[in-house]
Amino acid sequence: MIRLTSDIWVSAYLTRLRLVNIQAFVVARGDATAGAVLVKLNTLDDKGRVFQRSFDMTTGARNWIELIAGDEPELDAAITRQRSYDPDLWVIEVEDRAGRHLLGEPGLSE
To answer: What region, left, alpha or beta, does residue 46 occupy, with left being phi > 0 and alpha being psi -120 to 50 degrees?
Structure first.
């Protein structure tokens, strides 16, 4: 199975969000080819969730899972810790009061 590079996936994700009027931006650029991606969902009420892609060793499936949910300072601290372990990590912030992030949409879970 051919996998997209991280920079192409991020670009496609931002485009998909823009098409349905969901605001999003790159907070931190990671490795263009193989950097992991974190998605911070900011619901604009000082709360949110952070998602990371997970690999299921049993099935080989790649799914988005919730890394943390809570107050925005907690989310930012968790992201800072993750970036200290992995400087190649991308961080995308999605801002949507309704909590939409589209990560379960076809083509984005790959």
So the answer is: left
Residue 76's Cβ-side half-sphere holds a number of Cα atoms within 13 Å equal to 7
Q: Cβ–Cβ contacts within 10 Å for residue 13, how many?
A: 22
In the sheet with 23-28, reading across from the earlier edge strand, the strands are 23-28, 90-95, 37-42, 47-55, 62-71
Of the candidate CATH numbers 3.40.1530.20, 2.40.50.100, 3.40.50.12780, 3.40.50.300, the domain formed by 6-95 belongs to: 3.40.1530.20
- Taking only the tens place, the pLDDT of each residue in 17-45 is 999 999 999 999 999 998 999 999 999 99
Amino acid at position 93, single letter: E
